[in-house]
Amino acid sequence: MPFAVPLCAVLFFLFVGVAPAAESVSIVLTGKVMTTVTRSALMPFNAVVDEVLVKPGDAVQEGVPLLRYHLQDAAGRALQREVTTGAGTENLKGQVLDMERQLAETIAQRNKARQLAASGLGSQQALGRLEDDVRSLQQRIELLRRTIQKNESNFVLRLKELESYYGEPIREGQQLPLTLALTSPISGYVLSLESTLNSGSELAAGSAPVKVGQLNPVVIEVPVYEGEVSDIKAGDTATVEIPSLSNKKFTAKISEISWVSNDMSVSNPSYYTVELIVPNPELELKPGFKAVVYFKGAKQ
């Protein structure tokens, strides 16, 4: 008689005895497109705009003019005075000459005192004071010469800095040109202009009327939950979908994963910033575009 297997055992084997394999699912997150590098062109002086030379979206090379301007009256007078005055070392050089004369006299006195002391007719104490005076004068002269050298070197660097603003060599004492240029700090694309930037606009020193960024490649950052971040590795690829481009898909590479949570509070869940690099040779991706990111390989 064949061995009979109870029906309950068969059912147990079917439902429990074989565990289903873990399935690979995607992590879907959203972020925004950002430039890899963004730099602002900073105004070095209080100025008045003469002409705006670029518009948003223009490709620019590092050092090319973005706008032309002239200095506000007070700034112009101050800069002209700085160039006319120069390094301002004349007074220091006069002090050096006076000290050198004093040093020569003190050395002569020291030498005479040394001869007298050697013959027993002079005081060693007086000789010691004169020796100290000679060393002190020599040290003071050396310090003044170093100060003069530093001031003159700094002024040469200042003239080179002014050359970058004016676009031509600047020499001590010359009459400065009327027009200057604000140039691009990097090669890239003009991202934005200040809303009030027009011919005749006044700009304060330190203001940033033009922003330039690099758009190929672009960066996308997304926050990944702590329970999922271990399934993502730097160097992995991900798919990026852009809703504003009719859900067009791009391939991205994970470049960096933060080691510290965005929120360290124990009562709140932890999220880690994941950075992705997306090639953008056709400049289809613009900063601010919403991006849906699909990470593959997570385990459910």
Which CATH class of the largest domain is shown? Mainly Beta
Report the biggest beta sheet as strand number plus sense, adding barrel if it closes.
6 strands, antiparallel, barrel
Anisotropy-based shape: elongated
Q: Say what the CATH topology of the largest domain is.
A: Elongation Factor Tu (Ef-tu), domain 3
Counting DSSP E segments of at least 2 residues, the number of strands comes to: 12
Beta-strand residue fraction: 25-35%
Number of domains: 3
CATH H-level homologous superfamily name of the largest domain: Efflux pump adaptor protein, beta barrel domain
Order of helices and strands: HEEEEHHHEEEEHEEEE
Question: Which features does this protein show?
Answer:
12 strands; Elongation Factor Tu (Ef-tu), domain 3; alpha+beta; disordered N terminus; elongated; 5 helices; OB fold (Dihydrolipoamide Acetyltransferase, E2P)
